[in-house]
Automatic annotation (TrEMBL):
<keyword id="KW-0472">Membrane</keyword>
<feature type="transmembrane region" description="Helical">
    <location>
        <begin position="124"/>
        <end position="141"/>
    </location>
</feature>
<keyword id="KW-1133">Transmembrane helix</keyword>
<dbReference type="InterPro" id="IPR021318">
    <property type="entry name" value="DUF2919"/>
</dbReference>
<feature type="transmembrane region" description="Helical">
    <location>
        <begin position="92"/>
        <end position="112"/>
    </location>
</feature>
<protein>
    <submittedName>
        <fullName>DUF2919 domain-containing protein</fullName>
    </submittedName>
</protein>
<feature type="transmembrane region" description="Helical">
    <location>
        <begin position="21"/>
        <end position="41"/>
    </location>
</feature>
<feature type="transmembrane region" description="Helical">
    <location>
        <begin position="61"/>
        <end position="80"/>
    </location>
</feature>
<keyword id="KW-0812">Transmembrane</keyword>
<dbReference type="Pfam" id="PF11143">
    <property type="entry name" value="DUF2919"/>
</dbReference>
Length: 158
């Protein structure tokens, strides 16, 4: 019988499962419109130029904000989980994988719309977005660390 202690690095000093670093990367990818929006708020005179650098079409930016809003909610749920309060958010937190899945589907529809508008011509930006979506989907569905993390916040933990 071999004991496997490889998952012990997932625990913090209180014995709770820490959020995976890859989860933050996935959230940043899915909420990239919100990240660009936050960066544009820090620029006083060049807000439009920064947004147009990443999103030449205003409709792409607005639809990216709408699609990424669930990822922002998931980020705040993770923040509340680390604090352990309020406990009424526990059922919502335990469904963050479904929220990430819905965001992934919304992003896939946005990329499909962008590709169909371009008549499916290849561009590196769209190729990297599709690759990022594929990687995010693999992480959401196959990560054992994420599975343990989502199941860890329960009422009896407090």
């Amino acid at each position: 019988m071999v004991l496997d202690f490889s998952h012990i690095r997932w625990l913090d000093d209180k014995g709770r499962v820490k959020p995976p670093l890859s989860l933050y990367i996935v959230l940043a990818f899915l909420a990239r419109s919100w990240c660009i929006f936050a960066m544009s708020l820090t620029q006083t005179g060049q807000r439009d130029a920064l947004v147009k650098l990443f999103y030449p079409e205003k409709t792409d930016f607005i639809s990216g904000l709408i699609a990424g809003s669930i990822a922002v909610v998931v980020f705040f749920l993770i923040t509340f989980e680390r604090r352990g309060k309020p406990t009424f958010l526990i059922p919502l937190f335990q469904r963050i994988k479904w929220g990430l899945f819905v965001t992934l589907i919304a992003e896939a529809f946005l990329i499909y719309g962008k590709l169909s508008y371009l008549k499916f011509q290849f561009s590196w930006q769209n190729g990297l977005e599709v690759l990022g979506l594929f990687w995010c989907g693999l992480f959401i569905f196959k990560s054992q660390h994420l599975e343990y993390y989502v199941k860890n916040w329960t009422l009896d933990r407090e």
